[in-house]
Amino acid sequence: MKEKKYPLIGRERFEEYQGNLKTSSFDIAGTTIGTEKPLIIAGPCTVHSRQQTLESAHGVKAAGADLLRGGAFKPRTSPYSFQGLGVEGLKILAEARKETGLPIVTEVLDTRDVKLVGKYADMLQIGCRNMQNYPLLTEVGRYAAQHEKGVLLKTGPLPKLDEVLSAAEYIALEFEKQQKTIKLILCERGVNIPANSMRNTPRPEFLAELRRATFLPVIGDPSHSAGDRELVPQVGKDYLNAGANGLIIDILGDHEKPVTDDGVEVCDYQQGLRMSEFKRYLESLQNHRVPQ
Ligand code: PEP
Ligand code: MN
Question: Mapping DSSP to helix (H, G, I), strand (E, B) and coil, where does residue 276 land?
């Protein structure tokens, strides 16, 4: 018999997922993941202030988003860039959830912070730079399984299919040990080879391969791949046409400026979709159905 390389997340695990593109379905704080409607995670790249985050949360909720994103612990290339508000940012996100009911997705960078971030987050994000940080994958998986949280795993800077699926298997293993439903979403966010004017080259075809290999939901991140708000809508559509279960999108307020009132540069300003644009974009996706 052929060895099962991905015994927990591979389509070969269950007969119902073979020869199709069906996705496993699970609940994140009352929101069902894995439906025919594309999952939309949206919000600011980074929590800069209470006002910005609450406005964004209300806006994306009204537009029809399913979950709110926002970074409190940020992986920045330069140590001199704003590193996020940390715990204060988590508290702001918790307030946004209380006001809107949207579950929160936020990144955890370090095994030492898993408990802290987990206290506020409904879904813990493992970013591109940490896709192969195995102790973090294990710790986040263990915590999430124990506390009924979800995990969002982003693809690494230039990963092979096997590296992504194996990283997901690490997380799944922790859910399995506790005999819990695997609440894990994979996210293709482009590779670190700039092409044309893009920040990271999107790989919709790689997303399609992931979809064929695993029954877990796989979403695309047109913001961090394209890196330019002009290109985000089309790249998002490319991901959906490749079979994505949804999208994660950075949002900016309609009048948000590149620098905050406190003089901090807004993180990933150039790629944030303006709120009104986001609303129209979701309207344009209304009839899209995720292939099953
Ligand atoms: C993010 O989503 O906030 C982020 C930092 O993305 P990535 O890890 O894909 O660079
Ligand atoms: Mn960002």
Answer: helix
Number of Cβ atoms within 10 Å of the Cβ of 27: 14
Domain map (residue ranges) of the chain: 36-284
Ligand 1 lined by 45 (C-beta under 6 Å): yes
Whose Cα sits closest to atom 6 in ligand 1? 127
CATH of domain 36-284: 3.20.20.70
Q: Is 84 in the pocket of ligand 1 (CB under 6 A)?
A: no
The conformation of residue 266, written as its DSSP 8-state character, comes to P
Token pair of 26 as six digits: 């699970």
**Can you list the positions of beta strands (E) in 145-222?**
150-154, 184-188, 218-220
Residue 2 scores a pLDDT above 70: no
- Kindly give the distance from the C-alpha atom of residue 224 to the centroid of ligand 1, in angstroms, as a whole number: 7
pLDDT digits (tens, 9 = 90+) for 261-292: 999 999 999 999 999 999 999 999 999 999 99
Atom of ligand 1 nearest to the CA of 75: 5
Range of lowest pLDDT (43-52, 58-67, 159-168, 186-195): 186-195
C-alpha 4 – ligand 1 centre gap (Å)? 31
pLDDT tens figures, 39-76: 999 999 999 999 999 999 999 999 999 999 999 999 99
Closest ligand 1 atom, CA of 125?
2
Atom of ligand 1 nearest to the CA of 187: 9
**b/e sequence 49-74, b meaning 16+ C-beta within 10 Å:** beebbbbbbbbbbebebbbbbbbbbb
* Phi, psi angle pair for 213, to nearest 5°: -85, -35
In the 8-state DSSP scheme, what is residue 103?
A: P
